[in-house]
């Protein structure tokens, strides 16, 4: 059984500068880029809502006023949306999550990057997280990328690797290191927030690699699901083929 919405919250990372998405992001936030008539933000709010998650935190920085206005005009697309304001400084994924900590009342938070579109079954991801009870469950696939999380044979996070630079960080030793590509979606137990002792701007990847030495962080493989990172303008056409509605 998936938890009721009272026990789950969502967070959409929408504060990024979207430098890869120029020229749109010269005048707009990437969160409001449109795929088949719907903004990336609205698609992800509706995606979370499909799984009973209607209490959602959205962080804002780049053209924050446009995002706030879109949320107000559309009445949150049927969800209760709370803004985490990063207009002073964009804090990246880890810093953004830590800043939003006071806004979370649920035991578990489903976090998604605004430029990710997928049909991953969130219900299965959430159930897996509830059953395993790790600090966090990271959605991953077997796709090719340059940066990989590394897992052992039990799907426990043990490290990270950049295949372009050769850089590797091992958090705990394992008999085998299985590379998986991070999907920008994760279910985080509220306890994780209390373990973050950094301040300001930092990546959640660094947090995971620090905590993986002493805490269990699991991978959830959803290879075979529809998935696209709408990171650049030329990926919109591909996204529109994958997600027509």
Short précis:
The protein has 7 helices and 14 strands. The protein is an alpha/beta fold. The chain has one domain: Spore Coat Polysaccharide Biosynthesis Protein SpsA, Chain A, CATH 3.90.550.10.
The level of helicity is: 25-40%
Indicate the CATH class: Alpha Beta
Query: Could you describe the largest sheet, including whether it forms a barrel?
Result: 10 strands, mixed
CATH topology: Spore Coat Polysaccharide Biosynthesis Protein SpsA, Chain A
**Number of domains in the coordinates?**
1
Structural class: alpha/beta
Report the C-alpha radius of gyration, rounded: 17 Å
Choose one word for the global shape: globular
Distance between the termini: 27 Å
Architecture per CATH nomenclature, i.e. the level-2 architecture: Alpha-Beta Complex
Mean pLDDT: 95
Overview of this structure, please?
The structure is a single chain. This protein is an alpha/beta fold. It has a single domain, classed as Spore Coat Polysaccharide Biosynthesis Protein SpsA, Chain A, CATH 3.90.550. Helix content is 25%, strand content 29%. It has seven helices and 14 strands. The chain has helices spanning 40-50, 64-73, 92-99, 122-132, 190-195, 204-211, 235-242; strands at 8-13, 34-35, 38-39, 55-60, 80-85, 108-113, 116-118, 136-141, 147-151, 157-162, 168-170, 178-189, 217-221, 227-229. The strands form three sheets. Strands 1, 4, 5, 6, 8, 9, 10, 11, 12 and 13 form a ten-stranded mixed β-sheet that branches. A hairpin with a 5-residue loop joins strand 10 (157-162) and strand 11. The two termini are 27 Å apart. 44% of the residues are buried.
